Amino acid sequence: MFARYAFRSAQPLAQGVRKYSTEAPQKASRAPLLAGLALAGGAGYYYWQSTSGETPQGVPKDRAKVLTGGDQGWIDLKLAKIEQVSHNTKKFRFEFEDPEAVSGLHVASALLTKYKGPEDEKPTIRPYTPISEESQPGYLELLVKQYPNGPMSTHLHNMAVGQRLDFKGPLPKYPWEANKHNHICLVAGGTGITPMYQLVRKIFSDPEDKTKVTLVFGNVKEEDILLKREFEDLENTYPQRFRAFYTLDEPSKEWPMGKGFINKELLKTVLPEPKTENIKIFVCGPPGMYKAISGPKVSPKDQGELTGILKELGYTKEQVYKF
To answer: Which ranges of the sequence are coiled-coil (predicted)?
Structure first.
């Protein structure tokens, strides 16, 4: 489990390690990819929403924003829909009072959730990155894995349609713009994939953005890998720009990719050299993973010093961002 993260040798990646394809991208329609990037009901997958927030004439529609930051207080939203995604993960849709309004989030940003039980002395407050598009009117969606002794994730998993939850935000994270970096690398564990997905969705929905993306994603078992089909679609559609590597703490005998935790050997094999021009490495996962890979943040506004595997491999503090 990532909660007890330790240095452990990952076995050879076998089929998992590969270079970017030198062949030209397929000219097939991109519609299957776009259709594959939002959660499809009972199948438990995601497909990209096509809503652009624009009128048919191409003129942007000025939509109200639900979360405006600053001095705005907590906003309570009604839970409208729940979908079971995996054995311990659900997708929650929270509706806005105004069906034409958007969340107010941007890439990259997150929001806070708050809940105070009848016997709690203090409220539980936790940050989440929605998986719905920032331009989606009428609702936002959270992808939440229930963790043992996780008060907020347990509360969410116990919620019923019609109940309400407090939200606040947006919380600005890493300001993104097209082609800000030549190559970004996403090192994620568990539900730390959600801010990474927010970045990936933005990059590959923008035809002007040519950024290369490498994803390294660690989980306990294969069924814990969230959004795997979406990332596979990206690899097939953009073989010269996107590649993903997976490693499992408890793999099956048939698992062909990485085995063990994300470690030095794996990252040295799949990440670009530290001297590579204009790269950025993003890290998000459980506390033990931060400690091993990059060192923890001091606070939301203080990234802290770079330590761990990335420091040992020669990357600089300026090349790494901790979500």
So the answer is: none
Contacts 24+ apart (CB under 8 A), 89-92: 89/143, 89/144, 89/145, 89/146, 89/191, 89/224, 89/226, 90/143, 90/144, 90/146, 90/156, 90/157, 91/39, 91/131, 91/141, 91/142, 91/143, 91/144, 92/141, 92/142, 92/144, 92/156, 92/159
Which of 138, 172, 206 represents a domain boundary (last residue)? 172
Distance CA 262, CA 134 (A): 30
The closest alpha carbon to 134, from 60, 32, 207, 74, belongs to 60
CA distance 133 to 275: 34
User: How far is residue 312's CA from residue 204's CA, in Å, rounded to a whole number?
Assistant: 31
Whose tokens are 């001091």? That residue is: 298
Q: Does the annotation list 153 as a binding residue?
A: yes
Torsion sign, CA atoms 178, 34, 99, 166: negative
271 annotated ligand-binding residue: no
pLDDT category of residue 61 using cuts at 50, 70 and 90: low
Is 143 marked as binding a ligand?
Answer: yes
pLDDT per position as a tens digit, 71-120: 999 999 999 999 999 999 999 999 999 999 999 999 999 999 999 988 89
Is 126 annotated in some ligand binding site? Answer: yes
pLDDT band, very low/low/confident/very high, at 62 (cuts 50, 70, 90): confident
Tell me: do 273 and 301 sit in the same domain. Answer: yes
Domain end position, chosen among 132, 152, 172: 172
Same domain, 198 and 86: no
Estimate to the nearest angstrom the gap between the alpha carbon of 185 and the chain centroid: 13
**Angle, CA of 45, 50 and 54, to the nearest 5°:** 155
The whole domain housing 225 covers 2-35+174-322
Q: How many domains is the chain built from?
A: 2
Same domain, yes or no: 24 and 100:
no
**Residue 21 annotated as binding?**
no
DSSP conformational letter for 177: -
Residues 61, 67, 70, CA angle at the centre, nearest 5°? 120
